[in-house]
Each structure stands twice: as structure tokens, then as C-alpha cells.
Specification:
single chain, about 100 residues, mainly alpha, 5 helices
Length: about 100
Amino acid sequence: MADEKEKTLLDDVKNYLDITWDDPAGDQKIMGMIRRGMAALKGKIGECDFYEETQERALLFDYVMYARAGEIPQFWENYKPDIISLQIARRVDAYAGNQE
């Protein structure tokens, strides 16, 4: 199941990046970027859902785009407000959950 989800995610990222050709070595490289991006975003935001149409998923796609260009530091600078917004939303949700 996880392999199927990862394959679908890889295909979606490749579509987002307009990669239309088959390249197993390139796919492996992009999958590594996806996994590193997922870990990095989870580290900053907390629990994320990258398999549904979420803001975290959109950030992951942009992370991979920046990673392919060798501009990961610029990603963090450009998307800082989005990441902070998600951090705040997670904390508000956690606080609200504790109040019930």
C-alpha cells in the first residue's frame, strides 16, 4: 500500500514538474527529494498528509521543485509564512482538542 501511495505521489510530482519522460534513475532521485522534503516539512510543521490535496502536499511539490534547482534555502525563505501558518493551525487544533 505504501509503495502504491509513493508511486502515485511520484507520478503527481512529476506531472507538477512537467516531467513527461520515463527515467528510472531520475525517478529514484526525485523520490529521494520527496522523502527528504516530507521529513523536513514534518519536522517543521508536525504531522502532515501528503497523499490528499492539502497545503502540506502543495508545499512538498514546491520543495521538490526548489530541490531540483538546488535552491532549498530559498524555498524556506519564500514559504516561511505558509509554514508558520500551518504551525499555528496545528497548535490551535491541539489546544482546542485539549479543551474538550
